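Submission checklist for the structure archive. All mandatory fields must be present; incomplete records are returned to the submitter.

[x] Identifier: Trk system potassium uptake protein TrkA
[x] Organism: Rhodococcus gordoniae
[x] Residue count: 235
[x] Sequence attached
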Amino acid sequence: MRSVSEGSTGTESTVYVVVMGCGRVGSAVATALVRLGHEVAVIDRDESAFGRLGDDFPGHTVLGMGFDRDVLISAGIERADAFAAVSSGDNSNIISTRVARETFGVERVVARIYDAKRAAAYERLGIPTVATVPWTTDRLLHALTHDSETARWRDPTGSVAIAEVNLHEGWVGRRVTDLEEATGSRVAFLIRFGTGLLPDRRTVLQADDSVYIAAVSGSVSEAITHAENPPVDEN
């Protein structure tokens, strides 16, 4: 088991998240959370799955079944702020999510469910679910770290999202291209003095601008975090 790095940088409000399942989605969520400065523990019953995290992953990795109490305790569920069950099995995801919430009192939980009818039933029980769609990773990051919806619009394929950002004052006076380079997104439009504006490479960000960025789904939350923090050269 690898311990969480105490020197990670990122958002001001750090959460501790336990992720069950280290497949494509689980590993993407875990590494994205780490990049955002959060602490993460990942559970999987297949030790080789942890290879998806990379050798420099600073979080915990725990071998076992995600609905096993002892395994969850080893992953730090007793101090977790959030829990995500994203394994390949609906039953395992729901059982582990209910154990996390009902046994260990984790309020912020989310389960990946393949069966749409079952997902609707669990939503009615108060368990947020995500399906196997292109924006799964972004939806999970939103559910685990945000209190309100991140994206304002998505294209019909779910590949691109537009979101409003609360721009840090350090970006005022910078060109939109500086923000785009730092966030890996595109500034789709601004609202300035009550009027919409399509920016170009010469547009300079001003105080009180409402800024909307376009980003590939799965990277929206990370882009927002970069925009809400000062430019790197001001840190």
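[x] Structure attached
Curator remark: The two ends are 32 Å apart (CA to CA). The chain has two domains: 16-132, 152-228.
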